[in-house]
Request: fold
Amino acid sequence: MPPPIPLLFGPMLIGAFFNTTLYGVLILQALLYYQNYKRRDSKWLKLFVLYLVVAETLNSGFSIGLLYEPLILKFGQPAATTFFPLLLPAARLRPALPYSSLGIAISTPIQLFIAWRISVINRRWWISAVIGVLALISSSGGIWLAWTVVHVQRFARKPDLHWPALMWLLASAIADVLITVSLVYSLARRKTGFVQTDDTINKIIRMTVQTGLITAIFAVLDVICFLVLPNTTLNFVWDLALSKLYTNALMSTLNARQSLGQMLSPGQSATNYSTGLTNVLFSDESFMRSHGSHGLSSEGTAKPPGLSTFFIADELYL
Reply:
C-alpha cells in the first residue's frame, strides 16, 4: 500500500524546492567564477565547471518533472500514487538513466577531482585512492539503485531499494568525511604562529568543515529516512538537494581563492587578488621552491613562514 498523499508528494516537493533554490545559488557562483577566473584558470577546469552547470541544469529540470508527472499529467489517476515517476531513476543516480544517473555524474567527478587535489597537496596517494574507491562504490550503488527502481516500479515496494540506497549513500558519506578530515589535517599543519596567517587558516578550516560535512550529513539523513521510514518519501527532502550541495561546495572553494588572497596580502590591488594566495585545495608547496622559502619577501623583509604554501602553481595543476 502506498503512503498517504502528504507523505508521498510533500517531501518530494520540499526536496525539489531545496534543489531549485540551490540551483540559483550555483548559477550566481558560476557567474562569479567566470568573472574572476576566466583568464587565469586552465581551460579544462573552466570546462569542468561548465559541465557541472549543464548537468545541474538538467538535474533541476528532472526534479521538476519528477513532480509534474504525478501531480499534473496523472492528477486524480490511481497510477500517480501507485507507480514511481518515470524520471525517478534519472533523478537519483545521475549516470544511468535520465535523473538518477545525473546525480552520480555530478557527485562522483567532484569527489574524484578533490581526491586528486588531496594527493597533490599531501603527497600521500593512498588517502586519495581510498576516497576514489569509495566514490566509485557510491557511483555503482547509484546505478544499482536506478536499475532497481525501474524493476520495482511501485511505491509499495520501496523497501526493496534499501540495499542499493545504503551502498550509494553510505559510501558517499564516508568519502565526504575522509575528504574533510584530510583537508583539515593539511590546513592544521600549515599554521605558522603568525596571527594573520593562522586566522586565515582557521577561516579555511571552518569553510572546509561546513562545506564538507553538510554533504555527509545530508547523505546520512537520506539513508536514515530511507531505512527507518520505508513507507514514506521523507528521504527525498535530503536526496533531491544532494548533488547541488556537492557542486556548490566545490564552487565556493574555487571562488574563495580571491577573498583569501586579499586577507593574506591586504596591500595588493583587487586585480592581483585572483592571482595571489589561495586555499589549501589549490595550493602546492613546490611553489615555495620557485618563489623562495627562506622567510624573506621580495623587498627582503621578514614574512610569516609557510605563507608561500597558499600560493597556487597554475602552470602545474590548473
Q: What stands out?
A: Confidence is low (pLDDT under 50) at residues 90-98, 268-280, 284-318. The CA atoms of residues 256 and 279 lie 7 Å apart. The first helix runs from residue 5 to 37.
